[in-house]
Design brief:
The chain is an alpha/beta fold. Helix content is 41%, strand content 18%. The protein folds into 2 domains: 261 residues, 3-Layer(aba) Sandwich (D-Maltodextrin-Binding Protein, domain 2); 96 residues, 3-Layer(aba) Sandwich (D-Maltodextrin-Binding Protein, domain 2), CATH 3.40.190.10. Strands 1, 2, 3, 4, 10, 11, 12 and 13 form an 8-stranded mixed sheet that branches. It has a 3-stranded antiparallel sheet with strand order 8-5-9, sandwiched between helices. Strands 6-7 form a two-stranded parallel ribbon. Helix 1 runs parallel beside helix 4, helix 7 packs parallel to helix 8 and helix 10 packs across helix 15. The longest helix has 19 residues.
Length: 369
């Protein structure tokens, strides 16, 4: 789970808007009008993407402001409404079908998929140091963690990374270590304030960067670079939404928007775009945002994304994650069935990783060249 408690106060308002606007029950029926008052093409179905502040998801907010989203709406003949919500509100909106698609991690997509068949259409980034265990000088090595409580958000990416790294890299038994539930912002603030109980925390950016910046005597004991391509940030679409008229075009438009932005990010406007991304992610400056993007590595191209979700390793990774969530009873019900490929190859899957939408975008791009 990823969320920023600093935007939590607006979550209730945001979620109410999402429920009221929701997904167009009849996608062939035009919405009342767009932001500038102009009535959109009456033949365009409308779909909703819920996103929260995180580096590769903030791309969509900047892409909307830059006109990239509108360009892709026109290209794919759909209308896309972006809903900025707190992370937990995003998941609630998605589970209740108050939005068509959501920005979510691979771990956090498991429970919602049990109640709504889900399709991961786009991996946006992976954590390669953006989630870290920070310790004070009292902690000399990993074994010293046995004597303290490591604080972080339970049933989250943090808890998974903490125990997974202990077991994979250090060959330790997770049962010997204590992970105490605490809001990551509060955990970071406690360590920054040198509170006695805050000797070890497991948090993500921006809390990692902020804490290391404010306390020179704190260091990384380990981080998510030890479990490459296990923590994946994604866009997930409900199968029910993909089955609507224009659902496939909606998925393609979202994907195309993401890749178009990444092309821009590699170009002459990189510094400006980093600043704009930083404004939508904890108000970080250009240099800090550049560092964050190194630790949260974007899948910038179709080839990079396809290599992940069609590779032999990724199903094994998902099996590991599902087992972890089962063993710790984080899954609310039975384990979801995970599938890979197009709908006809895994129609009974609760959560399906489908490369065909990326491939459609890739093929359309090649038509021009």
């Amino acid at each position: 789970m990823r969320f920023k408690s600093v935007i939590a106060p607006v979550a209730a308002v945001g979620f109410a808007v999402a429920v009221l606007v929701g997904c167009n029950s009849n996608p062939n029926q035009p919405p009342a009008g767009d932001k500038d008052g102009k009535k959109p093409d009456a033949n365009r179905p409308t779909f909703t993407l819920a996103w929260s502040e995180y580096p590769s998801w903030s791309v969509f907010g900047v892409a909307e402001e830059r006109g990239v989203l509108k360009k892709m709406e026109d290209k794919w003949n759909v209308k896309i409404e972006l809903k900025l919500l707190d992370y937990e509100a995003c998941m609630t909106a998605y589970t209740s079908k108050a939005c068509d698609a959501v920005c979510v991690t691979n771990m956090d997509s498991l429970n919602p998929a049990l109640g709504r068949k889900s399709v991961a259409v786009l991996p946006t980034s992976t954590s390669v140091g953006g989630d870290a265990c920070l310790v004070t000088e009292d902690i000399k090595d990993v074994k010293d963690l046995k004597n303290v409580e490591t604080q972080g958000l339970s049933e989250s990416v943090s808890e998974y990374a903490f125990y997974r790294i202990l077991e994979k890299k250090f060959k330790e038994d997770g049962k010997d270590y204590k992970f105490k539930n605490l809001d990551p912002e509060k955990a970071a603030q406690a360590m920054q304030a040198k509170e006695k109980h805050a000797k070890a925390i497991m948090v993500w950016n921006p809390f990692v960067l902020q804490t290391l910046k404010l306390r020179k005597d704190v260091r990384r004991l380990f981080d998510s670079s030890e479990i490459p391509e296990e923590i994946i940030d994604m866009v997930v679409v409900g199968q029910d939404s993909l089955d609507k008229p224009g659902g496939d075009r909606f998925a393609c438009a979202v994907i195309d928007t993401y890749y178009e932005f990444n092309k821009m990010l590699e170009g002459k406007d990189r510094d400006e775009l980093l600043v704009e991304l930083g404004k939508k992610f904890s108000k970080l400056g250009k240099d800090e945002m550049a560092e964050v993007c190194k630790q949260t590595s974007f899948y910038k191209t179709p080839d990079a994304a396809l290599k992940l979700i069609t590779g032999d390793q990724f199903p094994k990774t998902m099996d590991t994650i599902v087992k972890f969530y089962q063993d710790r009873k984080i899954l609310k019900d039975k384990a979801p069935k995970i599938g890979y490929g197009a709908k006809d190859k895994a129609a009974d899957a609760n959560l399906r990783f489908d490369p065909t939408y990326i491939q459609q975008v890739q093929a359309k791009g090649k038509e021009k060249t």
